[in-house]
Design goal:
heterodimer, A: mainly alpha, 3 helices, flat, B: mainly alpha, Four Helix Bundle (Hemerythrin (Met), subunit A), 8 helices, about 80% helix
């Protein structure tokens, strides 16, 4: 392994540790945010927003998605679309139930 | 028989087969958990006002917060084990992989205490819709933890890591793939924690 490769991995390790710190802080922030005196809709939005940031950090840096091949990005975009469909199904049944 | 494209990239995809394989598998996992998250939304929307919050208050937030931190730590140690192999430091790999397994064990032990505490208080999956989806989601997640531990234990023990001595690049790829799975398990928990314990 060349010195260049070694330095490259060492740089990666620094990023991993920084992301770890950010994830730990955001975990504490998630818990503290749950004690805020806000409406349940705002609480859900806040908690999911923080969870999405944390998930993006894990996927982007630990799973290397920010530098990954387009093939994988396409697969994940397609997966995300069907995931959204899955999430909207209960909402459709809810509006049907409440005759909106 | 030599399995093709385990290290070198396949020209059609620009990826080695194991990398493509694990991402397609993880895509199917997104849909597996997606279906259950969808069930959670469905049950929550149909529940009486405050019902989910009431049952959610029965859960132990400090223990779940600790478990979140343990799982995040294991994500770092598993990627450090891969980085150690990239740096050709096999001893550090074993150390970090061992720490990952330790974190996974701690997670399961904490989960065991959480479950037994619920049973002790008479809360079962049959107690309410919330408890049903709570046990289903965390139970399935726990099974994923156990699955990851089996694979990582194999790669930690001499029977699994002997490949390092004959084909280090292939072994490093295997750890990367196992790591991707482990990060996904962490990622699922990142969403399970707020929706079950905090909302």
């Amino acid at each position: 392994m060349s010195d260049n490769d070694q330095a490259h991995i060492q740089e990666h390790i620094k990023v991993y540790l920084t992301v770890f710190g950010a994830l730990a802080v955001l975990t504490v922030v998630t818990v503290l945010a749950s004690y805020l005196d806000v409406s349940s809709t705002e609480a859900i939005f806040l908690a999911l927003a923080i969870a999405t940031v944390k998930a993006s950090l894990v996927a982007g840096y630990f799973m290397h998605l920010i530098t990954e091949r387009q093939t994988i990005i396409y697969i994940l975009c397609l997966t995300f679309f069907f995931f959204l469909v899955c999430m909207f199904l209960p909402l459709i049944t809810h509006t049907d139930h409440t005759a909106l | 028989m030599q399995i093709p494209y385990t290290i070198e990239e396949r020209p059609e995809t620009g990826l080695n087969n194991s990398k493509l394989g694990i991402w397609v598998f993880l895509a199917s996992e997104v849909m597996l958990f997606g279906g259950l998250f969808s069930a959670y939304v469905f049950l929550r929307l149909a529940a009486p006002e405050g019902d989910f919050a009431y049952w959610g208050s029965k859960l132990n937030v400090p223990l779940a917060t600790l478990n979140t931190l343990v799982l995040i730590s294991s994500s770092v140690t598993v990627i450090m084990s891969w980085a150690s192999l990239k740096l050709k430091d096999f001893e550090k790999y074993k150390l970090y992989m061992g720490l990952t397994l330790l974190c996974a064990t701690i997670f399961l032990v904490i989960k065991y205490f959480e479950y037994t505490s619920k049973f002790h208080h008479g809360y079962y999956p049959s107690s309410s819709n919330f408890m049903a989806i709570y046990f289903t989601l965390t139970g399935l997640h726990g099974l994923h933890i156990i699955g990851g531990m089996i694979v990582m234990t194999y790669f930690w023990l001499p029977a699994g890591n002997k490949l390092w001595h004959t084909d280090p690049e292939h072994f490093t790829n295997r750890i990367e793939i196992a790591g991707l799975y482990w990060h996904f398990v962490d990622l699922v928990w990142i969403f399970l924690f707020p929706i079950l314990y905090l909302l």
